[in-house]
Amino acid sequence: MIHETQASMLTDEQRKLSQVVREFADQVVAPAAYQYDTERRLPIEIIHQMGEMGLFGLPFPVEVGGQGQDYVSLCLAVEALARVDQSIAVTLEAGVGLGMMPIFRHGTEEQKQTWLPDLVAGKKLAAFGLTEAEAGSDAGATKTTARLEGDDWVIDGSKQFITNSGTPITSVVTITAVTGQRQTQDGRTAPELSSILVPSGTPGLTVGPSYDKVGWHTSDTHPLTLENVRVPASNLLGERGRGYANFLRVLDEGRIAFAALATGAAQGCLEEALRYANERRVFGRTIGSNQHVAFTLARMQARVHSARLCWLDAALKQVHGKPFKAEASVAKLVSSEAAMANARDASHIFGGYGFLNENPVARHYRDSKVLEVGEGTTEVQLMIIARDLGLTA
């Protein structure tokens, strides 16, 4: 649960939202989580329910069908869902932060009217195709190309690890591609990166088989291949050559929501371990009465508290229009490490039961590792924080 001090940083509406999503997570998502995890299938019916609740429209204005809330509200929903199922939480986080936000921030009115209504309503999902075999943290190494032929962009290349890219309701993928060369301020030549909207089902766009992942089994993740893919020139998202700058803003915001997701995972592990410690009796007393277990739970609570304060700080700066890049990286770093540590400790408290996949903490143990990798590795976050300190090494 959100600490009283942290709750005081929220509005009444935000506190109510957090409670409503928490109840939905406990009553709808949690009971089905193990089944869908073993089936490795995204439950579209649950996604539609989330859409009907308005979760996909939280940070968007009512003019485009949204709820008129802010990024804090989105993060609260993501955290509440991640307590019980990280896969469902990341479907929301990526669908909004990576899928919709680029269209909302940089799209033309026609592009917004074409794509946002169904996306905001949770009827469709969108994806963001950035990562490649040699380009992820180093986006400048992008190999996918797009060239203008008449009134069309012709795109060739491949992407990997793309969330929400192959679901039955995926409608569009934003692809980053090299569209030419540009001159840097120091006179060097560098790739010109642009973003282009590619509708699902476009000839030449092939969605590869779903990855056999360690965790996040319910989350939809695929490689993409683009061979002579043709889309109208009007599908350019934002200005030509601004793809790099635009997606940096997207990633900075995404790291805040990602940190909220990791905080939710850490919270879920704490709740499960605390319940078990108060129920499990060994040698005539509960294991929670043992100092080692009690101290372990205390450390787990400290991690959750710290992680939540970090993402709240970053999110509130974003909402108020203040710089938040370094704060987002701090939040991502602290929360991802908290999730991994809490998953490890919770599994240990459960003993043999913590090694069973039907146990939520076992699923968190498998799922949480990717939190230290996705949306910028731990090393990338350290690099950003070091730069903010004035260090250039």
Which spans of ≥5 residues are poorly predicted at pLDDT below 50? Answer: none
User: Residue share in helices?
Assistant: 40-55%
Counting H and I runs of at least 4 residues, what is the number of helices? 11
Looking across the biggest beta sheet, what order are the strands in? 1-4-5-8
Beta-strand fraction estimate: 15-25%
Main sheet overview: 4 strands, mixed
Question: SSE order, as H and E?
Answer: HHHHHHEEEEEEEEHEEHHHH
CATH topology of the largest domain: Butyryl-CoA Dehydrogenase, subunit A, domain 3
Give me the CATH architecture of the largest domain, please. Up-down Bundle
CATH class of the largest domain: Mainly Alpha
CATH superfamily of the largest domain: Butyryl-CoA Dehydrogenase, subunit A, domain 3
Dominant shape: globular
Distance between the termini: 40 Å
Which whole number gives the mean pLDDT? 94
User: How does the helix and strand content classify structurally?
Assistant: alpha+beta
Q: C-alpha Rg, in Å?
A: 21 Å
